[in-house]
């Protein structure tokens, strides 16, 4: 059994289970392909073990499959699709939500490396044998819970070290830096998410990031692959969908509650993102959730 097979066996045993001692580590499996679904990433490192996932970020599309690692360094809006999965051979992936404090500690322990220009807020590459080994050793703790208290931190340190030394190490170093270009863009992203109902003031948000409007726009788009205004739109529409599925209000009321001034514009943009008008999409999502919840 090779390393990827060992990781797959462990991931299948623990997929969907929450371990209160390893709250940022997760294993995920799905036995069918999916439609293209909108999502918002959190900063995380992940590894596909089996199957293929297709991602659309901005105007870019890429696929990653067995043995490939993905780093997401910011809260990025994307479209995702599981395009290779079946009952006999499900899609399997593992991941770890990133801890900025831990990364900062490791970077301080490593030799000083100058900050590089931001190319994007994400990256995909083939995992090296040392990186696969680090993933395996961390995941093994789920089979040996008595060791978690003592071993979780050094094993996570090893995994982060391997990632820092890999193709996207510069991206992770941007996360670690409290005064990095990426940290300033993430600060602006947080402000947009917290004030998504308000009209976007480019000058004020750029000032928050400590940049001119033109520099801020270019760097924001480099990280998120969409403009600040498009990013705000994604946040508004995701929140609208959450409220619609929860049955909190009708489409028109939700539209105005999340910051739209026109219900018709809201419906057009909602359909463009989610593939159906608000009410129909909400009913479809409720039906899907009901099927998942049945014993």
UniProtKB/TrEMBL annotation:
InterPro entries, alphabetized: Homeodomain-like_sf, HTH_AraC, Tscrpt_reg_HTH_AraC_N
Domain of life the protein comes from: Bacteria
One MF annotation (Gene Ontology) recorded for this entry: DNA-binding transcription factor activity
Keywords attached to this entry: Transcription, Transcription regulation
Any one Pfam family match given in the protein's UniProt record, by short name: HTH_18
PROSITE patterns referenced in this protein's UniProt entry, alphabetically: HTH_ARAC_FAMILY_2
Protein name listed in UniProt: AraC family transcriptional regulator
Species per Swiss-Prot/TrEMBL record: Caulobacter zeae
């Amino acid at each position: 059994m090779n390393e990827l097979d060992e990781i797959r066996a462990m991931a299948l045993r623990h997929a969907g289970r929450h371990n209160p001692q390893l709250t940022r580590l997760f294993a995920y499996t799905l036995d069918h392909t999916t439609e293209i679904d909108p999502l918002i990433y959190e900063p995380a490192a992940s590894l596909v073990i089996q199957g293929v996932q297709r991602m659309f970020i901005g105007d870019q599309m890429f696929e990653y499959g067995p043995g490939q690692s993905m780093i997401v360094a910011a809260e990025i809006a994307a479209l995702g699709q599981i395009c290779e999965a079946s009952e006999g051979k499900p899609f399997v992936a593992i991941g770890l939500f990133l801890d900025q404090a831990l990364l900062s500690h490791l970077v301080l322990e490593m030799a000083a490396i100058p900050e590089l220009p931001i190319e994007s807020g994400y990256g995909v590459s083939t995992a090296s044998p040392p990186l696969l080994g680090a993933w395996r050793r961390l995941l093994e703790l789920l089979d040996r819970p008595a060791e978690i208290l003592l071993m979780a931190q050094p094993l996570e340190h090893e995994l982060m070290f391997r990632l820092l030394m890999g193709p996207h190490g510069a991206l992770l170093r941007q996360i670690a830096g409290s005064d990095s270009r990426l940290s300033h863009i993430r600060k602006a992203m947080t402000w947009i998410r917290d004030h998504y109902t308000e009209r976007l003031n480019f000058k004020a948000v750029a000032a928050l990031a400590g940049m001119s409007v033109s520099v801020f726009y270019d760097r924001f788009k480099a990280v998120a692959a969409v403009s600040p205004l498009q990013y705000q739109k994604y946040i508004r529409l995701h929140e609208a969908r959450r409220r619609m599925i929860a049955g909190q209000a009708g489409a028109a009321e939700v539209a105005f509650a999340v910051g739209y001034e026109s219900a018709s514009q809201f419906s057009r943009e909602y359909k463009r993102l989610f593939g159906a008008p608000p009410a129909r999409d909400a009913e479809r999502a409720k039906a899907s959730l009901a099927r998942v919840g049945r014993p």
